[in-house]
Amino acid sequence: MKIATFNINGIKARAEALVDWLREAEPDVVCLQEIKATDEAFPHELFDGLGYTIATHGQKSFNGVAILSRLGLEDVTRGLPGDEGDEQARWIEATVVGKRAVRICGLYLPNGNPAPGPKYDYKLAWMERMRARATALLATEEPFVLAGDYNVIPQDEDAAKPEAWREDALALPESRAAFRRILNLGLTDAFRARVRGPGHYTFWDYQAGAWPRNNGIRIDHLLLSPQAADLLRDAGIDKEIRRREKPSDHVPVWIDLDA
DNA sequence: ATGGTTGGTGTCCAA
């Protein structure tokens, strides 16, 4: 089962590029972030004939997540538990059944800038709610995947210029500690289980020639439950699509599970 | 320190 995460930065602006990538990469499951569209505005018709079932949790203008699956979607739920007043569309779950059933959680973790401030407080509180949800899922002892844009640079080796991110919400010690608290529940960073060392990025800013300078950061992650980690066969980053016309500022990250 | 770019349905905000 090939599972990918891709911050698409606007589904309406990127639908054609997404279809091209789906045809090439042939993922079974894709978690999308920043669709920047309501459920009604998602261009389902552009994906007809590709064989994907689509579940969205959209919002006008900002945020918005979706899951695409060519193995079907069961028990879809929307929203991260823990704050009934939270209006931001950043979390969606579904179960996908291949050889095994895998619970897929697609997430768009808050950016948190500027820090300190209310946006940073929201980010840290959201991460604590995510930790609680992961804890509940671990109790099921079933395979699950937390896939998305985490807006966290886990370590200095995950940035081309770590010093440029010192004061940024993506790399502040509290952000890294909150990420580690989730990881330390017993989850596995799938990419890091397969590839070690610096120089592996998933995001390059549109500004200041970040892409031609390879000034990137690794902020899109797939965390695996112990039962999912046992099934991990491979992981990778589809870096090359960043050089295409009108790309997203993120690229897809994928895993292959024996499931 | 600053500036640079993109998408949305915007006369600026979020990233």
Low-confidence runs of at least 5 consecutive residues: none
By DSSP (H or I, 4+ residues per run), the number of helices equals: 5
Mean pLDDT metric: 97
Helix content: 10-25%
- Overall radius of gyration: 17 Å
**Distance separating the two termini:** 5 Å
* Assembly classification: single chain
In terms of structural class, how would the helical and strand content be classed?
A: alpha+beta
Note the beta-strand portion: 25-35%
Task: State the fourth-level CATH superfamily.
Answer: Endonuclease/exonuclease/phosphatase
Main beta-sheet annotation: 6 strands, mixed
**CATH topology type:** Deoxyribonuclease I, Chain A
CATH architecture: 4-Layer Sandwich
CATH class: Alpha Beta
Q: Order of helices and strands, N to C?
A: EHEEEEEEHEHEHEEEHEE
Number of strands: 14
| Strand adjacency order, main sheet | 3-4-2-1-14-13
Number of domains: 1
Characterize the overall form.
Answer: globular
Task: Provide key terms for this protein.
259 residues; 6-stranded mixed β-sheet; 5 helices; globular; double-stranded DNA 3'-5' DNA exonuclease activity; single chain; AP_endonuclease_F1_BS; alpha+beta; ExoIII-like; DNA-binding; Deoxyribonuclease I, Chain A
